Every structure is written in structure tokens, then in C-alpha cells.
From TrEMBL:
Record protein name field: DUF4345 domain-containing protein
Transmembrane segments: 7-27, 47-65, 77-95, 107-126
Keywords: Membrane, Transmembrane, Transmembrane helix
Keyword Oxidoreductase: no
Family matches, as InterPro entries: DUF4345
Length: 173
């Protein structure tokens, strides 16, 4: 679970950092990849898509740190998004006769590494079992040591004690 949290925190920082950079410095960020923003509409589109989308993804990942099931969803989203972007970059390599800038090569390596790490963390998270505490359901206040509860299991006698504590109402004719 630590690996999953670490990957998500790093991704939050990366998405938020790039999102804010594209939001506040669209010209400079576009120039890194060789784009030239000529119209105010193109500047707005870079801010919205590259800035706003990445900030939104960072907020989703931050929200997903709250629980294990949310982290699973966030890791799956990260795996799918980064894999799709890596495949798109490889496809553009093929379409554009194999010419990539340094920015594109490092971006491709980062996306592949992130997708692989998210996949590893997803598998590791699926194997992780949270410990289930032995909690008394109906006032077990004796000094007797009981076996810990297991998911899906019920201790012997528990059902009978529940019936005694809360009997069913009599049947109506």
C-alpha cells in the first residue's frame, strides 16, 4: 500500500506542477514541444486542456488517497491514461517518420515507467489484506480470549446470541 501511495503522491505533484505551468505560462510550455500559439483561442485551449485537465487529474488522485478502493480506481485510471498516451506517442513516431525531440523521448519514457509502476502497485494493492480487528458485537466482556474474526466468517454461537438479544416478533395469523 505504501508503493501505491508513493506513486499517487508523485503523480499528484507532477500533474499539479505541469498543470499550473501550462495554466500560468502557456507560451513557454508550448515552446518546449515546438508549438507556436498564434491566437488567443489557442492559448485558451492550452490553458484549459493541458492546464485544467492535469490539475483536475491531480485533484482526483489527491481525493483517491482517502481509501484503498479509491486508490485502486486511481491506479487503474493512471495505468490506462499513461498507457494510452505512451501508445499515442509511439503511434506519432510511426506517423512522423521516427523524429522525436528530447522532450518527447523523455515524456515517452516517463509515461511507460509510470504505467508500469501503476500496474505493479495495482497488483500489490490487490494482494494486500487489511487486518480485521476482533470487535465484540454483543457485549463480549468476559476475559476469555477469542479467535480473531475473519472476513466472511462468524464465530460459533454468535447467531444464537443475536437471536436471544433481539427475538423475532410473533407471527400474525
Amino acid at each position: 500500500m505504501l508503493l501505491a501511495r508513493l506513486i499517487l503522491v508523485v503523480q499528484i505533484l507532477v500533474f499539479a506542477g505541469f498543470g499550473l505551468a501550462y495554466w500560468f505560462r502557456p507560451y513557454e510550455m508550448a515552446n518546449l514541444s515546438g508549438m507556436l500559439l498564434m491566437e488567443t483561442t489557442s492559448v485558451s485551449n492550452v490553458r484549459v486542456y493541458y492546464g485544467g485537465l492535469q490539475i483536475g487529474l491531480a485533484l482526483f488522485l489527491l481525493w483517491a488517497l482517502r481509501g484503498r478502493e479509491l486508490m485502486r480506481a486511481a491506479l487503474m485510471m493512471l495505468l490506462l491514461v499513461q498507457s494510452a498516451l505512451a501508445l499515442a506517442r509511439i503511434g506519432s513516431l510511426w506517423l512522423d517518420d521516427g523524429t522525436l525531440q528530447n522532450f518527447d523521448i523523455s515524456s515517452l519514457a516517463y509515461k511507460v515507467a509510470t504505467a508500469l509502476l501503476a500496474g505493479v502497485a495495482l497488483v500489490q494493492l490487490a494482494r494486500y489484506q487489511e487486518p480485521v480487528a476482533d470487535t465484540a458485537l454483543i457485549g463480549d466482556l468476559d476475559d476469555e480470549v477469542s479467535e480473531p474474526l475473519r472476513r466472511g466468517g462468524i464465530r460459533e454461537g454468535l447467531v444464537e446470541r443475536i437471536d436471544e438479544a433481539a427475538p423475532l416478533p410473533p407471527e400474525r395469523p
